[in-house]
């Protein structure tokens, strides 16, 4: 399967095999998920995983040959688990499952999410507890490496029994059905297989169920979201430090002694970030004067941002377990010769974690919007109103706070947890579901909103620094200011502002601002 080790990037250039990622079902990292999803890193199946898969597949063959009654292999699904299916109908059973379960609706998932879903599904099957042939994983990887992506609607999964509907849309393409995206064009599943150089796959016993029963959609969204949340949280520290500079804040609140007597890990880390960013500037060593303390959105940054850092760490831990887990049902244990029906497809661990992620990141946006308000209000900033020297004729950055406020308010709605809701399905056979995919999609949207709020705050802070009394800035904050000004000029009079917001957002989302600052002061650990 040498072709599986080849991948074509968006511009058609073959990637170096040294960057390929081997799947063994045990050691996939979030960073590798991001590499495959966003950078199209090539993927292959490790030989050890192939052997494990072959062992569990032989168990399935034996079950069918001996006409044993085993859920999903020789029975129907869900409420139909009491209906026995003959060996002659085993293949049709699996095909029917995929076709009948492909009932997603809404807009298609972004390409990067679909790629992450395919990767995670391949990885969980590679563990060797699902009973499928290695060929099934090779089909998924061939599509990935060729840049062929099933069209998967966003809505329709309740997060138990796994992400059934969206995973069924992925699986359709393996059968030459459904639709796929290739080089920006929407094509039929049959054409997609032709592009990948594959004949339509005929599913054998258990394979349709194994491909559709699991948490890989919410897991895929979650992996990309937690990666983005980590970048966003570090950028939030930069934005906070820049606001401290712009508002002549007091860095004494970030003193290690304050953190030592309340040593939450995130708080300690965030305070260290702020000291690292402000080091080398006047603010870092300035003692309190007539003003002995700042408003909470400056002074309490380590406490609030730090709690978010702790939450992100927790979610990362959950995801790193999940993406290397077997999540379909039933599971086959070749060493013991047993098949066990369980509930690893239930998305509650992810649903709780991803709701938590959304709430935690939303708080970064709330803090940033309040800093925007302080920067724009002459009563709190001591600067010209709305950061324009010709107020009245010019509105300056007035409306940027409106946009930030709208996004913060939207996040308050999105942060309402999905995981506390449940609607029974399958005639009450599946009587509690997680709503994990909804939690995942909400978290992703919250993170994007917060990135735009941070971009606005960075824009306002740079403008405030230009209008304020200049002092020597910290190495990190000075570098952040330079990067912003290299893209967005000082606002001397009103101009069309949305391009500035988009430029600032790109600096945040791409990680270019963070990278430039870390190149200057070292990694924000």
Automatic annotation (TrEMBL):
Transmembrane segments: none
Catalyses which reaction(s): L-histidine = trans-urocanate + NH4(+)
InterPro entries: Aromatic_Lyase (IPR001106), Fumarase/histidase_N (IPR024083), HutH (IPR005921), L-Aspartase-like (IPR008948), Phe/His_NH3-lyase_AS (IPR022313)
Post-translational modification comment from the UniProt entry: Contains an active site 4-methylidene-imidazol-5-one (MIO), which is formed autocatalytically by cyclization and dehydration of residues Ala-Ser-Gly.
SUPFAM superfamilies: L-aspartase-like
Alphabetized GO MF terms: histidine ammonia-lyase activity
Sequence similarity: Belongs to the PAL/histidase family.
Name recorded for this polypeptide: Histidine ammonia-lyase
Protein's organism: Desulfofundulus thermosubterraneus DSM 16057
């Amino acid at each position: 399967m040498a072709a599986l080790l080849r991948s074509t990037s968006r511009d058609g250039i073959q990637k170096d095999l040294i960057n390929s990622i081997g799947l063994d079902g045990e050691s996939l990292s979030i960073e590798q998920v991001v590499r495959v999803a966003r950078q199209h890193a090539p993927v292959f199946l490790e030989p050890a995983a192939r052997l494990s898969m072959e062992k569990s597949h032989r168990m399935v063959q034996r079950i069918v040959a001996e006409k044993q009654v085993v859920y999903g292999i020789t029975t129907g699904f869900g409420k139909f688990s009491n209906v026995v299916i003959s060996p002659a109908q085993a293949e049709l059973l699996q095909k029917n499952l995929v076709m009948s379960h492909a009932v997603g609706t809404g807009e298609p998932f972004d390409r990067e999410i679909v790629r992450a879903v395919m990767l995670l599904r391949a990885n969980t099957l590679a563990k060797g507890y699902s009973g499928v042939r290695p060929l099934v994983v090779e089909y998924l990887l061939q599509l990935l490496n060729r840049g062929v992506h099933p069209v998967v609607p966003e809505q329709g999964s309740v997060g138990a029994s796994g992400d059934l509907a969206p995973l069924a849309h992925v699986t359709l393409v393996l059968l030459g059905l459904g639709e796929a995206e290739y080089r920006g064009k929407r094509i039929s599943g049959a054409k997609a297989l032709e592009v990948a150089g594959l004949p339509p796959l005929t599913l054998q016993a258990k394979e349709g169920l194994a491909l559709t029963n699991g948490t890989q959609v919410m897991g895929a969204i979650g992996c990309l979201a937690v990666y983005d949340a980590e970048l966003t949280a570090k950028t939030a520290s930069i934005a906070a430090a820049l606001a401290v500079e712009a508002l002549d804040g007091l860095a004494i609140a970030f003193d290690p002694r304050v953190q030592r007597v309340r040593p939450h890990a995130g708080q300690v880390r965030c305070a260290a970030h702020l000291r690292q960013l402000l080091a080398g500037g006047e603010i870092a060593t300035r003692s309190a004067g007539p003003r002995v303390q700042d408003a909470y959105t400056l002074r309490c940054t380590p406490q609030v941002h730090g709690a978010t850092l702790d939450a992100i760490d927790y979610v990362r831990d959950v995801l790193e377990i999940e993406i290397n887990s077997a999540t379909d049902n039933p599971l086959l244990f070749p060493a013991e010769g047993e098949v066990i029906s369980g509930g690893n497809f239930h998305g509650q661990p992810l649903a709780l974690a991803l709701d938590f992620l959304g709430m935690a990141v939303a708080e970064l946006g709330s803090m940033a919007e309040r800093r925007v308000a302080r920067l724009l209000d002459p009563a709190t900033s001591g600067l010209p109103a709305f950061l324009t020297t010709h107020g009245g004729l010019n509105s300056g950055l007035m409306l940027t706070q409106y946009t930030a406020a709208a996004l913060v308010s939207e996040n308050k709605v999105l942060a309402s947890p999905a995981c506390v809701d449940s609607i029974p399905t399958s005639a009450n056979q599946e009587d509690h579901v997680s709503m994990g995919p909804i939690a995942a999609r909400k978290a992703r949207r919250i993170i994007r909103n917060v990135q735009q709020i941070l971009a606005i705050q960075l824009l306002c802070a740079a403008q405030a620094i230009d209008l304020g009394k200049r002092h020597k800035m910290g190495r990190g904050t000075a570098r952040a200011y330079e990067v912003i000004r290299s893209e967005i000029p000082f606002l001397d009079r009103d101009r069309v502002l949305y391009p500035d917001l988009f430029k600032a957002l790109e600096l945040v989302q791409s990680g270019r601002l963070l990278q430039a600052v870390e190149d200057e002061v070292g990694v924000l650990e």
